[in-house]
Amino acid sequence: MNTVYHYGMKVPYESTGRVQQKARTRDALIAAARALLSQGRTPTLEEAALAASVSRTTAYRYFPDQRALLVAAYPHIEERSLLGPEPPGDVVRRLEIVAENQTRRIPAYEPEMRAVLRLSLDDDPAQRPQLPMHRGLRIGWIEDALAPLRGGLPEQELLRLTYGIGSTLGIEAFVWLTDIARLSRSEAVAIMRSNAVALLRSALSDD
What we know:
By secondary structure, this protein is mainly alpha-helical. It is 61% helix and 4% strand. It has ten helices and two strands.
C-alpha cells in the first residue's frame, strides 16, 4: 500500500482525504481481480485497473504491484475459532466442524487461494511471511479443535498431530487431489475431511 505524508507523518494513502471514496476504489480493484481470477486469469495490476474502470496511476496508489493486489484478493478470515459460541466437548466432533468449515471455504475461494499459493513458491524467502496463508490461522483452528487433548497427549505428539491434520486441510492438498489425482472437487473435499479425522482417530487409538 502506498503512503503519503500527513502533518509530516507517513500514513497509508487510503487513510487520508476522501476515505470512503478511496475504500470503494480499492474494493472495485479487488473485485475486478477476483472476477478475472474466476475466469482462470492471473491479472496484472493494469488489467484489474482496466476491468474496474480505474486509471493505471490510481491503481498504483493502492497496490504497488501485482503481488499486493493478489494478496488483497485472498479471503482474509479473522475468526480465531470455528467452533461457535457453544463448542462440543467431543474432540472428534470439534475437528469435524473445523474440517467442514475449512473445506467449504476452499472451493468457494479457489481462484484466489490458488493465486496466493503460486506466490508462496516465490524464490525470495523474505516475501513469504507476508502471505495470508502464513498467518497461522489454520493451525490455530486445529489447535482449538484439539484443545481437549492437551495434557492427555505428550506435547510433541500433539504438535505432530496438529501439523499433520493441517497438511490435509489446505489449498495445497486440494490442488494435489484435483490436479494430480484428477478427483472432482467434491471427492477431494471428502477425502480431506476423512483424512483429517482419520489422523485424529489413529492418535486416539494409540493413546
